Amino acid sequence: MPDKHLHIISFDIPYPPNYGGVIDVYYKLKTLHNLGIKIHLHCFEYPGRNRADQLNQFCENVYYYPRILGIRSAFSFAPYIVVSRKSEEMMHNLLKDDHPILFEGLHSCYYIDDQRIKNRIKVYRESNIEHRYYFNLFKVDVNLRNKIYFLLASIKLRMYQKVLRHADLMLAVSMHDTLYLQKHFPGKKICHLPSFHANEKVAIFPGRGDYALYHGNIEVSENEFAATYLINNVFDGLGIPLIIAGMKPRDKFRRLVETKPDVRLIANPDEEKMFDLIRNAHVNILVTFQATGLKLKLLNTLYNGRFCLVNDEMIAGTHLDQLCETGNTAEELKSKLKELFSQEFTPEEALRRNELLKIDYDNQVNGEKMIDLIYRL
Question: Contact, 369 vs 171, CB < 8 A?
């Protein structure tokens, strides 16, 4: 059998795998490599993430291209997140052969309709319905300049997504997003393929913890809004300790936490600290106010944490409802928290969770499915 080669265009350098999108890319690279795929990785880089030799262990080649930031990309009919990721050097490297090309997210799709790759197999890896994501950021952000940017980005992304008709295959991270793409691109091959992740099996401490945990990148408006909602509407006066753990909290948020005696903020925890917080919490509480994508922090929590309390938007289209407790109002969340803090998490529940997660979220099974879908086109 000849070797199978695959070009992967990543919107960012996928190491370290420390936020949602790059977690999927990194563990996809690892899984496909272990299954024998020869990977040619193309990364867009910009300040804040360095070139990573660790990627060489999974890839035949790793190429880096500068992202075109600032005014040069701002004034374009194409979305900023797309037009800032173009590179003729990358196109030159893609044209060296005729291997399939995987476009990671709408961010990386600048060339998906380029006539030079018209006859290539092109695969779109969906991680979010981007215009919905940006519209929700518009709704929750309080900074006027940010609100204008998010609204304009949402409009541009909604108009731009029609470019996806040039993909031969679309792989969506949730059933919710799969159905959306099937509705808007009838006749295209669109399949549900959950995100790749760091976990191989459940590793949960049975018994009890003495706090609830919310974690996420607090710098992102959506997460700051969710954390603020929990502080003000759910935990205020409840008498249950809440830890908020996340990256780059703003001063305003820090000041809010300081006024709440039952709330503690752990800013910028490293990977080991975050893992420890998730495993030792009695309840990991995760809420969101938009139902797009697959929240990888939820998946990580289910593999490593005790009880998981969410709202319906957090688990939409994920098949994870059997593993979570749900509440959709402040009163429902308060009631569930009181109930869960009166219970112990049992070893039997951990075993059950492991068996259910293997059905849809086993990396090797999903890697094999992905390979079969691409190389049968």
Answer: no
How far CA 166 is from CA of 41, 117, 162, 170, in Å, comes to 21, 10, 9, 10
- For residue 127, give the amino acid letter: S
HEC states along the chain? CCCCEEEEEECCCCCCCCCHHHHHHHHHHHHHHHCCCEEEEEEEECCCCCCCHHHHHCCCEEEEEECCCCHHHHCCCCCHHHHCCCCHHHHHHHCCCCCCEEEECHHHCCCCCCHHHCCCCEEEEECCCHHHHHHHHHHHCCCHHHHHHHHHHHHHHHHHHHHHHHCCEEEECCHHHHHHHHHHCCCCCEEECCCCCCCCCCCCCCECCCCEEEECCCCCHHHHHHHHHHHHHHCCCCCCCEEEEECCCCHHHHHHHHCCCCEEEEECCCHHHHHHHHHHCCEEEECCCCCCCCCHHHHHHHHHCCEEEECHHHHCCCCCHHHCEECCCHHHHHHHHHHHCCCCECHHHHHHHHHHHHHHHCHHHHHHHHHHHHHCC
The pLDDT tens digits along the chain (377 residues) read 689 999 999 999 999 988 878 999 999 999 999 999 999 999 999 888 899 999 999 999 999 999 998 766 566 788 999 999 999 999 999 999 999 999 999 999 999 999 999 999 999 999 989 999 899 889 888 889 999 999 999 999 999 999 999 999 999 998 889 999 999 999 999 999 999 999 989 999 999 999 999 998 898 888 999 999 999 999 999 999 999 999 889 999 999 999 999 999 999 998 899 999 999 999 999 998 876 656 788 999 999 999 999 999 899 878 888 999 999 999 999 999 999 999 999 999 999 999 999 999 999 999 999 999 999 98
Say if residue 30 is exposed, middle or buried (CB neighbours under 10 Å; 0-12, 13-18, 19+). buried
Going along the chain from its start, the domains and CATH numbers come out as 5-132+159-167 (3.40.50.80), 212-359 (3.40.50.2000)
pTM of the model: 0.90
